[in-house]
Amino acid sequence: MPVRENMVADSAIDLALEHLENMTDQELNNLFERMSSQQPNIMGFVVGLSEGLEDEEAAEDLFYLTTIIWHAVELSKNDLLLTVSEEALTALENRMTNLFEEIISFSEENDEDDMKNLIGASTQPALVNYLVDEFFSEQYLRLPEEKIAKMFACMTVVGEALGEA
């Protein structure tokens, strides 16, 4: 597969995870604050979804995953990211809704192939693959399938939008 412009590699995701795992609570808080000030519209988008989850742990996971994705993209670009505009949020919401509907329509017989196709079609396949591994793991079995699909769709469009920033 040809390397796409602004594509985040697995190594950037691994490095972001390593950075976050080795940070103190204060360093994590500072990183989160920097991300929030740089990407207020993305944070508002994620907050909106997290409030609808009615699951505090899942909402916290969304913020942590947003931080991982943002930091991985930032490391990949080796620079500050452009702020995702407020105007772009409508497009993000539409992309998330379309992706959610696509995921919900996957049949059990073909869901693995459908997910591979979704990853391959993404502008950020490494990020989407990471999100597949996260959301479709045992950790989220407690949540209804629709909530998992909505969280996955949200984080996928956030990752792609940040990659484009």
Tell me what you see in this structure.
The chain is mainly alpha-helical and 165 residues long. The protein is built from eight helices and no strands. The chain has helices at residues 10-21, 25-38, 40-53, 56-77, 88-104, 111-121, 125-135, 145-164. The radius of gyration is 15 Å and the shape is globular.
Rounded radius of gyration (Å): 15 Å
Largest sheet: none
Helix content: over 70%
Mean pLDDT: 88
The string of secondary-structure elements, in order, is HHHHHHHH
End-to-end separation in angstroms reads 22 Å
Give start-end ranges of low-pLDDT stretches: none
Q: Please report which band the strand proportion falls in: under 5%, 5-15%, 15-25%, 25-35%, 35-45% or over 45%.
A: under 5%
- What is the approximate shape? globular
Structural category? mainly alpha
DSSP strand tally? 0
Please tally the helical runs, counting DSSP H or I stretches of 4 or more residues: 8
Oligomer: single chain
